[in-house]
Amino acid sequence: GENVEQHPSTLSVQEGDSAVIKCTYSDSASNYFPWYKQELGKRPQLIIDIRSNVGEKKDQRIAVTLNKTAKHFSLHITETQPEDSAVYFCAAPRGSARQLTFGSGTQLTVLP
Amino acid sequence: EAGVAQSPRYKIIEKRQSVAFWCNPISGHATLYWYQQILGQGPKLLIQFQNNGVVDDSQLPKDRFSAERLKGVDSTLKIQPAKLEDSAVYLCASSSVQGGRETQYFGPGTRLLVL
């Protein structure tokens, strides 16, 4: 099955700085890597995803990079704002299947 | 588009009692998932349905958990009897496939506390 590891578990940055969260996966057949943001007491919401045929994807202040050889992918948030404070989860499917295995989460705190 | 609906939002029960959760997916979504999210952890898949059939229930503790999606729309998840370690948020998600890419949409969850 798929094993997803996520680091760091907590991350504090000053407003305006960048934040980077990293994940590794084990199943080389995995082809889709979503990132979810979960605010306290709320549902996880998809913020960006990347397919295995591209190495990087950007959406405004958020970007995700993928290194298939090393089996790791990262979330980059630039110009962080207090509203970026939340728990971020990476996920990877079990090979070509659609079931997602989630990482353990990163609590991001953006300090004003 | 209306989102995934779940009820109840909160439930407190004593151990060995039974509890049931309900999920209404986004209209037209054939795939439905139930996840368990323990505090401080990521969601863990319990069961996946495709229409009214089970695709994967390998991580469902079948001695106490059961789930059904009889008409391929709404789904219920039941725990009988509950244990202290079942305290968690139970998330339902449904998914659509567009351009070969599947996106899962989560409901607000049911927060269960077992005393």
Question: What can you see in these coordinates?
Answer:
The complex is a heterodimer of chains A (112) and B (115). In chain A, strand 4 and strand 5 form a beta hairpin. In chain A, strands 2, 4, 5, 9, 10 and 11 form a 6-stranded mixed sheet that branches. Chain A is built from no helices and 11 strands. With 112 residues, chain A is an all-beta fold. The model of chain A has no long low-confidence stretch (mean pLDDT 92). In chain A, 34% of the residues are buried. Chain B is mainly β and 115 residues long. In chain B, strands 2, 4, 5, 6, 9, 10 and 11 form a 7-stranded mixed sheet that branches. In chain B, strands 1-3-8-7 form a 4-stranded antiparallel sheet, with no helix packed on it. Chain B is globular and about 45 Å long. In chain B, 35% of the residues are buried. The chains are: A mainly beta (112), B mainly beta (115). The interface between A and B is medium-sized, with 22 and 22 residues.
Oligomer: heterodimer
User: Overall 3D geometry of chain B?
Assistant: globular
The largest β sheet of chain B comes out as: 7 strands, mixed
Distance between the termini of chain A: 41 Å
Radius of gyration of chain A: 13 Å
Question: Which helices and strands occur, and which strands form pairs?
Answer:
The complex is a heterodimer of chains A (112) and B (115).
Chain A: E1 4-7, E2 10-14, E3 19-25, E4 32-38, E5 45-51, E6 56-59, E7 62-67, E8 72-77, E9 86-93, E10 100-102, E11 106-111
Parallel strand pairs in A: 2-11
Antiparallel strand pairs in A: 1-3, 3-8, 4-5, 4-9, 6-7, 7-8, 9-10, 9-11
Chain B: E1 5-7, E2 10-13, E3 19-24, E4 31-37, E5 44-50, E6 53-56, E7 65-68, E8 75-79, E9 88-98, E10 101-106, E11 110-114
Parallel strand pairs in B: 2-11
Antiparallel strand pairs in B: 1-3, 3-8, 4-5, 4-9, 5-6, 7-8, 9-10, 9-11
Question: What's this, in brief?
Answer:
By secondary structure, chain A is mainly β. Chain A has strands at 4-7, 10-14, 19-25, 32-38, 45-51, 56-59, 62-67, 72-77, 86-93, 100-102, 106-111.
